[in-house]
């Protein structure tokens, strides 16, 4: 934190913090400096580098708000996470495990070992196996892909289960089937959330949540960074 305004009591200049700026409108973070309300930030855990901390708020809050706030997972919940090696997915696996869930992750062949290393109880190579044919009786599916995945998710969820999607445009097509099966559909758009950031910081501080950095780019290469595709982890811009 470079400087604080009048009336700020939470922090002092020089404090190391991280957080999600008000989203989706109002602020942008592709910059060397930003001005933001102090209460969107929390102290950075010493265990995280600044690059790791920068990668965590948007993706981590997406996973936390989907799995904990929306789906209400807990000990023994059976959870399937699509794109489990990706920026949101690899954090979702760790968060679900930290809350005591039984986690099944979908990943490509090259990322199976990575997802297993995050603590997933089962990892399915979606390039060779249709998950709808090998899993059942799930409490939650967290879908980060869309396409035909919501329809398949309904086949493996128990009545009363939840399908949470970060791609809400994929849900209307399955709404009638979900209602007939007694399955809850939930659309998620992540919000800035200091309480959620506190949870992420606590998990990271005790080693239960570690972001994986796939690549870094200088700020002037923001366009290239946005277009860069990785199979696992997060891409971070460095001012």
TrEMBL record:
Domain of life: Bacteria
Entries under InterPro entries matching the protein: ER (IPR020843), GroES-like_sf (IPR011032), NAD(P)-bd_dom_sf (IPR036291), YIM1/Zinc_Alcohol_DH_Fams (IPR050700)
Gene Ontology molecular function: oxidoreductase activity
Domain Enoyl reductase (ER): 1-237
CDD domains documented for this protein: MDR_like_2
Name of protein: Synaptic vesicle membrane protein VAT-1-like protein
Taxonomy of the source species: Bacteria, Bacillati, Actinomycetota, Actinomycetes, Mycobacteriales
């Amino acid at each position: 934190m470079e400087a604080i305004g009048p009336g700020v009591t939470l922090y002092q200049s020089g404090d190391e913090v991280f957080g999600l700026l008000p989203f989706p409108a109002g602020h942008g973070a592709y910059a060397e400096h930003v001005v933001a309300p102090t209460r969107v930030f929390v102290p950075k855990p010493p265990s995280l580098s600044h690059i790791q901390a920068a990668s965590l708020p948007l993706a981590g809050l997406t996973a936390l708000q989907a799995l904990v706030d929306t789906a209400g997972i807990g000990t023994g919940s059976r959870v399937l996470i699509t794109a489990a090696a990706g920026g949101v997915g690899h954090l979702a696996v760790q968060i679900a495990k930290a809350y005591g869930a039984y986690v099944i992750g979908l990943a490509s062949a090259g990322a199976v070992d990575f997802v297993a290393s995050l603590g997933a109880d089962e990892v399915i190579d979606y390039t060779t196996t249709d998950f709808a044919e090998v899993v059942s009786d799930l409490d939650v599916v967290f879908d980060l892909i869309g396409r035909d995945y919501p329809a398949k998710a309904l086949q493996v969820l128990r009545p009363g289960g939840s399908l949470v999607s970060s791609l809400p445009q994929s849900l209307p097509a399955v709404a009638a089937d979900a209602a007939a099966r007694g399955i809850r559909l939930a659309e998620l758009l992540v919000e800035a959330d200091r309480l959620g950031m506190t949870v992420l910081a606590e998990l990271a501080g005790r080693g239960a949540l570690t972001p994986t950095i796939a690549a870094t780019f200088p700020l002037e290469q923001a366009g290239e960074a946005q277009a860069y595709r990785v199979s696992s982890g997060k891409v971070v811009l460095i001012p």
